[in-house]
Amino acid sequence: MSKAPSDSPLFSEKRPKSPAKIKADKSEIFTPDYSHEQQLQAQGYKLIAGLDEVGRGPLAGPVVAACVILDPDNLPEGLDDSKRLTAAKRNRLFETIMEKAVAVTLCSLSARAIDESNILAASLLAMKRCVGALTVQPDYALIDGNKTPGGLPCPAMTLVKGDQRSLTIAAASIIAKVTRDKMLERAGLIHPAYGLEKHAGYGTAAHRQAIEEQGPVAGLHRYSFAPIKGRWTADK
Questions:
Q1: Is 53 labelled as part of a ligand binding site?
Q2: Most exposed among 3, 9, 62, 167, judged by the fewest C-beta atoms under 10 Å?
Q3: pTM tops 0.85
């Protein structure tokens, strides 16, 4: 099993029969399966990578992307959208995915990097770097959402609500979520006034109140996000 380091930096093109983007009704509830991967494998794409990111909305902390290639003969049981799992189950599945996957990569971009570009650009760059860091070449990538990072080394397809529809994307969502939560827990030890271990940097009432009382922390908080934007300036 090949695993690339989490700090790794920043396809004969064969066109799939399936559309480049698959949309989903926002009201629909899905259960992830391996059908999208099987359809691609039937067309000759053997190694299917799943991509997802976590942390687009928070006021603090990085955005974290993960890329996972699963072994179709050894799929982990219980995979689902990370948001629909308890923390305990996510942690257990994290270990299972790391043990069973063909390859796993991670990339995080800091709050400063997000402020220097924007959250969408940072998210797409993190996903691109994840694919580039793989030690095995994927034949195809399934991406959560409706945006495809530029410059990928393989064909790709977006899936709206992909973490609820594709087991490979669901696995990536779990890897990214568990990793980011641990990063914010560590940040909470350094900056205890903000309660980061409780909300992972999201804009809860308690977090917003702490920002009002303490001010934001340069390198931790996103100065391009309201309510910080325009009120505080990050130290260079």
A1: yes
A2: 9
A3: yes
